[in-house]
From TrEMBL:
This is G-protein alpha subunit-domain-containing protein. GTP binds at D317, S318, N433, K434, I435, D436, A488. Keywords: GTP-binding, Lipoprotein, Magnesium, Metal-binding, Myristate, Nucleotide-binding, Palmitate, Transducer. The keyword Protein biosynthesis does not apply. GO terms for biological process: adenylate cyclase-activating G protein-coupled receptor signaling pathway; glucose mediated signaling pathway. InterPro entries: Fungi_Gprotein_alpha, Gprotein_alpha_su, GproteinA_insert, P-loop_NTPase. G proteins are composed of 3 units; alpha, beta and gamma. The alpha chain contains the guanine nucleotide binding site. GO terms for cellular component: cytoplasm; heterotrimeric G-protein complex. Mg(2+) binds at S155, S348. Residues 222-242 are annotated as: Disordered. It holds the Pfam family G-alpha.
Length: 517
């Protein structure tokens, strides 16, 4: 007896057999498929073999028993990651046959088909591919997209979600060490600029030696217009033994590459990719430098100059946290803890995700990083989006265009998302983040300076309500918006309630979407 016709030639002469012989053909195909499975057990799963299995699954004269047997066999094969890859890349996975089996009127068949998908998605790299390319195949997985401007707190939120479930092992925490050094040294460089602006002579006497250490480690760039002590400048450049000039505008400091921005005159540190750079960092962040950072960051005159000129001295939101932990970080055996990870500033460049179990369902939260345009269309029609906006952005300027206010840029992004035809059925969880920084800023920097229509003064509730109102104004598509005020760096326990509410919203939306509610 010939094998079932291939899916492409399904209307061959064989498919025109008389209907009267159908049950007999069903039995014969069952026996044939069983012996085919026997012949192939223990052999690698080739494309041709998968195509033959596909023909049993697609052929209208194959019985349900045959299809169940074949798919059960393929599910067992999918335990191996290599065979699972072969299956996902095969005609079987890409044809409609699998969808038909998943929607079969036979409950047993549906379960086996779901089991097949579960097996395939148990392999992490495959799961991502299936979730993105074939979202409908993953009916027990809810996809959530995390969006927001750079630095609004998306990765911090994702890390908090990870802490609520599996946490970070020592190996994962150690990976943050270099980024944290970079964060600390970037901020220390700014501190040195602030010292130059204040002037050595204006500092208390017992602080001058610490200031000198800082100025030696972070010498003024050529042509820096800071008011500075020129004697110290010359000395500092000459005695900065760790710094070897590579070429104009670029220097190596321990493991970091220091590149000068010719417009602002500032130095930015880039991490060297060499594998042996970590030990060198300890040489850079010496106990003496750590001590100097600790002391100088507490000098009121330095703090004042930073506060009064926020546009000249960009300090990351976690600066206070890292400076107050500087001795722990500078210790040679330093391994970041979970709080350090939440405070670290690591710009996301690729898509990352984390999963949260929810009964029989899994919530997959995706942070698409800088590749938003590349990925976003794969998320068309998803049930929920989490949008992060940093409340404290109200006095900041856009990284791309210094004439654009960052809060307005965030409102613009929100507008383009909520009114996009891709998301017309999506609901939005709006996280108004960095409430702690916002609280501190409000009394010093009036919100009305940037949003003249605001009249509520420095009252935190009024100000937050006003910003929420501005976001809701953009929602012309009238999507359901669920707002929360957050501090993403807060301890995980205090975020638990917010995450419980977020989970509930996601679940309700997923159920509504699947028409269970
Ligand atoms: N003080 C404070 N800092 C926060 C808060 N949320 C995030 N941060 C810090 O802000 C910085 C940026 O946060 P990320 O989570 O990296 O921002 P992101 O949106 O992932 O940024 P990109 O990956 O560049 O798009 C990090 O240093 C965080 O620790 C908050 O609520 N309060
Ligand atoms: Mg990020």
């Amino acid at each position: 007896m010939p094998r079932p016709p291939s899916v492409r030639s399904i209307h061959s002469w064989w498919s025109d057999l008389h209907a009267a012989t159908k049950p007999l053909i069903g039995v014969l195909y069952y026996l044939q498929a069983r012996s085919f499975i026997g012949e192939n057990t223990g052999r690698p799963l080739s494309t041709a073999t998968i195509d033959t299995f596909l023909s049993y699954l697609a052929y209208k004269y194959s019985s349900l028993a045959t299809k169940r047997m074949v798919l059960r066999h393929l599910s067992e094969r999918a335990v191996s990651e290599e065979e699972a890859w072969g299956l996902v890349e095969s005609n079987l996975f890409q044809s409609d046959v699998l969808d038909e089996l998943m929607d079969s009127p036979d409950e047993n068949m549906r379960q086996i088909a779901q089991w097949f998908i579960t097996r395939l998605t148990s392999h992490e790299p495959l799961r991502l591919q299936i979730l993105i390319m074939y979202p409908k195949r993953c009916r027990n997985i809810v996809k959530i997209l995390l969006l927001g401007l750079r630095g609004s707190g998306k990765s911090t939120i994702l890390n908090q979600m990870k802490l609520l479930t599996k946490g970070f092992d020592e190996h994962e925490r150690a990976k943050y060490r270099m980024s944290i050094y970079k964060n600390v040294l970037d901020c220390a460089g700014m501190l040195a600029r602030a010292v130059r602006r204040v002037g050595l002579g204006a500092l208390p006497e017992d602080m001058q030696v610490h200031a000198m250490v800082l100025l030696v480690a972070f010498p003024a760039p050529d042509g820096d217009d800071e008011k500075s002590n020129s004697e110290t400048e010359t000395e500092s450049v000459e005695s900065a033994s760790e710094i070897s000039v590579l070429h104009s505008g670029e220097a190596a400091i321990g493991p970091f590459t220091r590149r000068r921005n010719h417009e602002s005159g500032e130095y930015h540190l880039g991490i060297s990719t060499a594998a042996d750079v970590l030990p060198q960092t300890h040489a850079m962040l010496t106990p003496t430098l750590a001590d100097a950072i600790w002391h100088i960051s507490r000098v009121p005159a330095v703090g004042r100059v930073v506060d009064e000129h926020p546009a000249d001295f960009y300090l990351m939101d976690s600066v206070e946290y890292f400076f107050s932990s500087i001795h722990r970080i500078a210790h040679p055996a330093y391994v970041p803890n979970e709080q350090d990870i939440l405070h670290a500033r690591v710009e996301s460049t690729t898509m990352t995700h984390t999963s949260i179990p929810l009964g029989d369902l899994s919530i997959y939260v995706f942070d698409v990083g800088v590749e938003r345009e590349k990925w976003i269309h794969h998320f068309e029609g998803i049930t929920s989006i989490i949008f992060c906006a940093a409340l404290s952005d109200y006095d900041q300027v856009s990284a791309e265009d210094s004439r654009v206010n960052r809060m307005r840029e965030s409102l613009g992004l929100f507008d383009s998302i909520v009114n996009s035809p891709w998301f017309w059925r999506t609901s939005v969880i709006l996280l108004l983040n960095k409430i702690d920084v916002f609280r501190k800023k409000l009394s010093r920097i009036p919100l009305e300076r940037y949003f003249p229509e605001y009249t509520g003064g420095s009252d935190l509730n009024r100000a937050a309500k006003f910003i929420l109102w501005r976001f809701l104004q953009e929602n012309r598509a009238r999507l359901s918006v669920y707002p929360h005020l957050t501090q993403a760096t807060n301890d995980t326990k205090s975020l638990r309630l917010i995450f419980a509410a977020v989970k509930e919203t996601i679940l309700q939306n997923a159920l509504k979407d699947s028409r269970i509610l």
